[in-house]
Amino acid sequence: MLRILTVDDHPLLRAGISSVINAQPGMEVVAEAADGEQAIVEFRKHLPDVTVMDLRLPRKSGIEAIVAIRQDYPKARIIILTTYAGDVQALKAFKAGASGYLLKNMLRAELVDTIRSVHAGIRRVPAEIAAMMAEHAGDEALSPREVEVLRHVSAGHSNKVIASDLDLSEHTIKGHLKNILSKLGANDRTHAVMIALNRGFLDS
């Protein structure tokens, strides 16, 4: 019997995931959690075969929970469940130790197969995310400061306002923006924000 832990802060979604899993022969949900901290507690208590966990969670994010769990249980098999199709968040999840990545709009069609594959030691990534990860594999990553500047740009702030908020000179902000446009292959700041949103740079 495959024992599953589900982690999501939306009770209705947790119930839906559990009903799909419990309807399968040889699978059962042994525990549920509503946040990252609770996920760690429930994992230690039940030691599930596979964990299905949302990326965005209260108290501790899905990424932080994966890191904490795998510090003590390096063979833990964890599938990240998310609405975010960008390659940046997927890459963070896999670097943290996730074994699978599943978009919520593919839940009913892919959940059971993804759980079985991950339990068998096969990494599962949606084709469009895998393609995006491959396309940007050689790209230079944005620095934390560049992401911070881009967040301000996405909020419609001028260089002067960004400089004031970050306690930097306007010249420095212009330098960061030049680097951002170059790294993202963007034509202007609006285009840079669109690319960043699409790829998941601005997801917390």
TrEMBL record:
InterPro entries: CheY-like_superfamily, NreC/VraR/RcsB-like_REC, Sig_transdc_resp-reg_C-effctor, Sig_transdc_resp-reg_receiver, Tscrpt_reg_LuxR_C, WalR-like. This is Two component transcriptional regulator, LuxR family. Residues 3-119 form the Response regulatory domain. The keyword Phosphoprotein applies. The lineage of its organism: Bacteria, Pseudomonadati, Acidobacteriota, Terriglobia, Terriglobales. The modification 4-aspartylphosphate is found at D54. GO terms for molecular function: DNA binding. It comes from the Bacteria. GO terms for biological process: phosphorelay signal transduction system; regulation of DNA-templated transcription. Residues 135-200 form the HTH luxR-type domain. Keywords: DNA-binding, Phosphoprotein. Gene3D superfamilies: 3.40.50.2300.
